[in-house]
Specification:
The chain is 34% helix and 21% strand. By secondary structure, it is of the alpha/beta class. Residues 65-71, 88-91, 97-98, 100-101, 136-137, 174-176, 194-195, 238, 333, 335, 366-368, 382-385, 387 line the site of flavin-adenine dinucleotide. GO terms for molecular function: NADH dehydrogenase (quinone) (non-electrogenic) activity. This is Internal alternative NAD(P)H-ubiquinone oxidoreductase A1, mitochondrial.
Length: 489
């Protein structure tokens, strides 16, 4: 709280001293101007901090929780002539998750898979009443159309987290899902997840550190093997793709650049059931053979306990490791669990128009939502292709509602929403290293054009991987990679 008051004081001083404000560099001024506007508006009343409800002569406000696939696709298409957009998220960028595994081993650079929110929806950094707030939403007052947020100050020891409220006309909950750990002891403390850019940075840092430490004189054979044992738990698409990337890295880079220790490094993939259980049987067999050929050891087992240097399986086997990556699927986040609204398999229950039917003006998309049983539809898989299409659909629905005068709170009851959302699965794909991939098209009706597209996608990706490594285009000052941004290149 004191830091915020100080900032308000500073901002008032700067506003009064117009000459000093003009002297601020062009880079800093738009951001500062945006901040000044927010504080100026609310510093007049010490008790109300946040954005109040809009008036009927103002643009209605859409509040989007989350900056992932769903939230960003929605924001990209929202008509900012109709709405002001406020995005609340603990992350100031979107992560292109399908390529995240490639950044762990340096095939791609981190900046190539992260896009700043201001680029996706420029209004949040240029328009007077649209904002991006680096914060978590902690609670929603559905009756009063208001959310409660808390700033993210991780890594900034001098700042206390600060609470503020934001009123909404339309609320879109797109806060994603959380990694599942099944309550297994030691996972949160010792394993690394693969969901965010800072996770990929951590994995790359540990991998390189272990490669270098294992080459130091005096390290025992046993310790070398442990340091260079990379264990992946979870044989879904993410675990398999990451194992494939690691084996490529070992075959190419480690053999060339860390030749002294090349015979000590190994990858083990532990899965309780079948790997890639959602894929066709023949594809699973193919993936198993390819991974084994690339040197990945596949172990069927159930992790019982994770210690700092070893995993203990339910049959008592000890698996020493130097790097442990945990990828056993996703489930509802504590925030979603805390919301007192009907759920579908733990996710926020929605109807065919992606509305949360028990409350007014609230919608939910992406991994955090699922169709209610009453809709007669299945809960859709937690996939980017679902989240992206829901975001696109909802943006067009909300634009239509806004155009027809239903943008403000409690004003859309009599508006025809048009066709409901329909999801068509285009197929699943998982890369398994060495530029090989599995494409499962069982649920989709596609022509040979699609196969050609897949081939072209891989060709393009191969070229892009190489090009992006040399020409990373996103200026790093636009990205805030928490908890700390480290340079390990
Ligand atoms: C490594 C990896 C690879 C993947 N590969 C594929 C693939 O190839 N194909 C595919 O279809 N899918 C893939 N997925 C799944 C896909 O990424 C997800 O289904 C998709 O990200 C879901 O989008 P979303 O917007 O619902 O959630 P997310 O993308 O997870 O975004 C959620 C957002 O909400 C924010 N948030 C969380 N809590 C709060 C809060 N309390 N308040 C405000 N904001 C909050 C988060 O910071 C984040 O910005 C992959 C996932 C991973 C991790």
């Amino acid at each position: 709280m004191p830091w915020f008051k100080n900032l308000i004081k500073i901002s008032k001083t700067i506003t009064n001293q117009s000459s000093s404000y003009k002297s601020i560099t062009p880079l800093a001024s738009p951001l500062l101007a945006q901040f000044l506007q927010f504080t100026k508006q609310y510093s007049t009343n010490d008790h109300v901090v946040g954005l109040e409800a809009t008036k009927s002569d103002q643009k209605p406000r859409i509040v989007v929780l989350g900056s992932g696939w769903a939230g960003c696709r929605l924001m990209k298409d929202i008509d900012t002539n109709i709405y002001d957009v406020v995005c609340v998220s603990p992350r100031n960028h979107m992560v292109f998750t399908p390529l995240l595994a490639s950044t762990c081993v340096g095939t791609l650079e981190f900046r190539s898979v992260a896009e700043p929110i201001g680029r996706i929806q420029p209004a949040v950094s240029t328009q007077p009443a649209s904002y991006f707030f680096l914060a978590n939403c902690n609670a929603i007052d559905f009756d009063n159309h208001m959310i409660q947020c808390q700033t993210v100050t991780e890594g900034v020891e001098t700042l206390e987290p600060w609470k503020f409220n934001v009123s909404y006309d339309k609320l879109v909950i797109a806060s994603g899902a959380h990694a599942l750990t099944f309550g297994i002891k030691g996972v949160n403390e010792h394993a690394t997840f693969l969901r965010e850019v800072h996770h990929a940075q951590e994995i790359r840092r540990k991998l390189l550190l272990n490669l270098m430490l294992s080459d130091v004189p005096g390290v025992s054979e046993e310790e070398k093997r442990r340091l260079l044992h990379c264990v992946v738990v979870g044989g879904g698409p993410t675990g398999v793709e990451f194992s494939g990337e690691l084996s490529d890295f070992i075959l190419k880079d480690v053999h060339q650049r860390y030749a002294h220790v090349k015979d000590y490094i190994h990858v083990t993939l532990i899965e309780a059931n079948e790997i890639l259980s959602s894929f066709d049987d023949r594809l699973r067999v193919y993936a198993t053979n390819q991974l084994t050929k690339s040197g990945v050891r596949l172990v069927r087992g159930l992790v019982q306990h994770v210690q700092p240097d070893k995993i203990i399986l339910s049959d008592g086997t000890n698996v020493p490791y130097g790097l442990l990556v945990w990828s056993t699927g996703v489930g509802p986040s504590p925030f979603v669990n805390s919301l007192d609204i009907p759920k579908a398999k733990g996710r926020i229950g929605i109807d065919e128009w992606l509305r949360v039917p028990s409350v007014q003006d609230v919608y939910s998309i992406g991994d955090c939502s699922g169709f209610l049983e009453s809709t007669g539809r299945q809960v859709l898989p937690a996939l980017a292709q679902v989240a992206e299409r829901q975001g696109k659909y909802l943006a067009s629905l909300l634009n239509k509602v806004g155009k027809e005068g239903g943008g403000h709170a409690n004003c859309a009851q009599n508006i025809n929403l048009g066709d409901p959302f329909v999801y068509k699965h285009l197929g699943s794909m998982a890369t398994i290293g060495r530029y090989k991939a599995l494409v499962d098209l069982r649920e989709s009706k596609v022509s040979s054009f699609f196969f050609t597209s897949i081939f072209l996608f891989f060709l393009l990706r191969w070229c892009l991987d190489r090009a992006l490594t040399y020409f990373n285009h996103t200026p790093s000052y636009l990205l805030l990679i928490s908890p700390t941004s480290i340079n390990i290149e």
